[in-house]
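Lecture 7 notes: from sequence to structure.

We start with a single chain of 255 residues. Read the sequence below before looking at the structure.
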Amino acid sequence: MKQIFMVAVYNFRTWKKNPRVFLSFAIAFIFCFLLSDKVVQFAEKHDTSMQFLEPFIWTFGDSESILLASVILIFLFSDMPFVTNGTPFFLVRTTRKKWLMGQVLYIVLTTTIYMVFVMLTTSLLSMKNAFMGNMWSPTAVILGYSKAGEVLDVPSSMKTMGMSTPYHCAAVIFLLMLLYALIMVSLMLLGNLRFGQMGGVLAAFGFSVYGILLDPKTVRMIFRIPDYEAYKANVWVGWISPLNHATFHMHNFGY
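Now the structure, written as tokens:
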């Protein structure tokens, strides 16, 4: 375990010389700002406060936002399996299996750090008029109990607020996003090892496109499912699409 940990630590030491890392986190920051700004502006316009995790909940309760946040990881990990000047040293002092396990540990830790960064960035952008209490804010009530959420395309719902608290809801969304990203990056690593760098990138993009195509609306249109049987499309897509599984209101249908 010590040797595996040292391989992962060495990869983290290369961050200061890797502009891809700084650019990836910069893109993630801009992405979070653009997506959460509409909720923050809505609260400022109506002069209402927010629970500080609500921008994260309303932003990443949507499958498209989760997909876009995960796609940035493709750019961050595009050079997997991270062959550097120190690789021959580790292969001599350890084994290929331990070296590869070190890469896997680095990927898991980096993905977790990235998701924590996304969560904190989205939350901190709303701190100007936010509170820490574990209760839904007046802004959430307006979004959930009126058509304002639909107008802003914010996935707020009365069911979410009635069955959970902000901390619990944010924790579930964070875990779903993290697991979805880890699956995508794992497929990317397998593609890199089997088919080379381009194969890994194509595997990650293919996984993302698969999630885009399996949208409940698309399934209903293809199979001509009437509105009163729309729940059937939700059930099918909710189980066979990893992206919809990672979306809070589709994962076990909000329960």
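The longest strand covers residues 50-51. Keep this in mind for problem set 3.
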